[in-house]
Amino acid sequence: xxxxxxxxxxxxxxxxxxxxxxxxxxxxxxxxxxxxxxxxxxxxxxxxxxxxxxxxxxxxxxxxxxx
Length: 67
Hints:
- The chain is mainly alpha-helical.
- It contains 3 helices and no strands.
- The chain has helices spanning 6-29, 32-47, 51-65.
- The protein starts with 5 loop residues before the first helix and ends with a helix.
């Protein structure tokens, strides 16, 4: 059973929403990098939890906006 504390649930929701937005942005602008990072952000909450989720999500979000 995965860790279901409120902080992990919030992180999963926030990073999945950011990933969905990055995916839509990448699809509309025909850019592959935001699409791939968006897909990774949506998938990360299924694979990680706790502090690892926060760290991976923060890095992936930073890579979406990094030029």
